[in-house]
Amino acid sequence: MSRVSPWWRLVAGVLVLAVLVWRFGTGPFADAWRLTTWRSVLAALVLTALATLANAWRWRVVARALGAPLTLVGSVTAYYRSQFLNSALPGGVLGDADRGVRHGRAAGDLGLGLRGIVWDRVTGQAVQVVLLAVVVLVLPTPLQAYAPSSTAGVAGCALLVWGLARRRHGTSYPGRDLRALLRPGVAGRVVLASCLSSTAHVCVFAVATATVGVHLGPAALVTVALGVLVGSSLPLNVAGWGPREGVTAGLFALVGLGSATGLTVGIVFGVLASVATVPGVAVLVAEAVVRRRRSVPVPVPAGEPLEQVPHG
């Protein structure tokens, strides 16, 4: 399954994109590239930097609770690297896998590093789902019709978490990890960091709608943006593309603004989100330079015995 699953995720992402192109043509894609401006790109870079800092903080909180602390600089650079790899490689999770492997090796426990990444992603997405359920229930938008089903879904997930946290026997990692993460001091910071990150991404979505020239009221903007963020978390994409654009098109149709317009906004949002991960390239280049310098052999002067050459 570990070999087949990534290919199925890639195929699913390609199919979503193919359906979108078949349904709407290439017009929305061309419009999105034409409308994207340097001002919107700069705004996305700044807002995504804030989101990255919040995400790195959440990861540090989770890792510390599980027993594998992280430094501030290390967590931020690793998060930028993983975001770039997620946006550049199929599946949307390979960067996180790399982040977990590196952290696990540094901590001397590969499994612990990977569990930290899983909980970092799960807690962040869980907070987004809860936020979406709350705004669908509270804010006056056409999506309020889906409030009962969204509330029931969140309640079901809460019951599952409660059941896992109560498992205290055996070597149940989910139960032990959840008990560590649900401590008030830990859970409060995880929720706060996730809310800050989600707010920054909602602002990037607002930049995308303004770039396209679409006017959404505050209630509809927040609700649609959170719905897009939750849909974007599906690992069925091609370098981040696929479900995000499909979900945006569907939500815009539900709020009465047209799926074609939603697709254009989704593409602009995708462009801004991808460009905003460019600092991850700088991290990869810096790491390559450091590795190259460390691998350069110490020159040995002609005629001098090797044992006289200082080491290190």
Summarize the structure.
The protein has 312 residues and is mainly alpha-helical.
Describe this protein's structure.
This protein has one domain (26-144, 185-287). Helix 4 (72-88) crosses helix 13 (279-295), helix 6 (110-138) packs across helix 9 and helix 9 (184-212) packs across helix 12 (259-275). It has helices at residues 4-24, 27-35, 38-66, 72-88, 94-107, 110-138, 147-165, 173-181, 184-212, 218-232, 243-254, 259-275, 279-295. With 312 residues, the chain is mostly helical.
Assembly state of the chains shown:
single chain
Overall helicity:
over 70%
Helix-strand topology string: HHHHHHHHHHHHH
Q: SS-based structural class?
A: mainly alpha
Q: What is the arithmetic mean of pLDDT?
A: 81
The number of helices is 13
Report the radius of gyration as a whole number of Å: 22 Å
Question: Helices, strands, pairings?
Answer:
Elements: H1 4-24, H2 27-35, H3 38-66, H4 72-88, H5 94-107, H6 110-138, H7 147-165, H8 173-181, H9 184-212, H10 218-232, H11 243-254, H12 259-275, H13 279-295
Characteristics of this structure?
13 helices; flat; mainly alpha; about 75% helix; about 300 residues
